[in-house]
Amino acid sequence: MTSRSNRIKAYRQDWSAWQVRLELGPVGIGNPDGFWWPHSRDLVTELAGLLPVLRPGFGPARRVAFRRDEWTTAPRGMISGGLRTLLDGYRHMPARTVDVIGVGATLTLRLITPVAGAATNTAQHRSIRDDRAGPEIGAWLRDRHRRSR
Predict the structure, then answer these.
(1) Residue 137 backbone dihedrals phi, psi, to 5 degrees
(2) CB atoms within 10 A of CB 130
(3) What is the rounded CA–CA span in Å between residue 9 and residue 13?
(4) Helices 130-148 and 43-58, packing angle to 10 deg
(5) Run of H or E including 86
(6) pLDDT higher than threshold 90 for residue 141
(7) How far apart are the first and last CA of the chain?
């Protein structure tokens, strides 16, 4: 079985004009697990789009750890899908990363800001409908779990 990169580009439910852009790297490569292209520095707004895309394969996010100075002021928690997610801001966390912590799994996502992402070749990304995003994330996590044993 060969490792392959899962690319997920799902439409946000809240703002149909914006898209959640997420790419998970090949399993077993290391940190980060993938890349995320947020549209703003408003963490709660961005997570409101990201967490529902992750939920079908990843499960509910219990906690999100982030570097405090990279986002506008964030509350200590938020409600996503009827469940509370704790938001933990740190000063000494690797730059441009977010850790999404669930039950039995953690995803470390490298942030690609609009300026840093300008050089990214968008032709390399394919679109996947919302109903397929969860199964692809789930398969990626299962493959990662099998390889870590």
Answers:
(1) -65, -40
(2) 15
(3) 13
(4) 70
(5) strand 83-90
(6) no
(7) 16
Q: Is 3 helix (H, G, I), strand (E, B) or coil?
A: coil
Could you report the per-residue pLDDT of 29-83, keeping only the tens digit for each? Answer: 667 889 999 999 999 999 999 999 999 888 999 999 999 999 988 899 999 889 9
Contact partners, residue 148, CB within 8 Å, separation at least 6:
28
Neighbours of 63 (CB within 10 A): 15
32, 25 contact by CB (below 8 A): yes
Cα distance between residue 103 and residue 59, in whole Å? 7
Q: What is the mean pLDDT of residues 121-127?
A: 36
3-state secondary structure of 20: strand
Q: Which two tokens stand for residue 118?
A: 């300008």
DSSP code at position 25: P
Structure tokens at 35: 């890349």
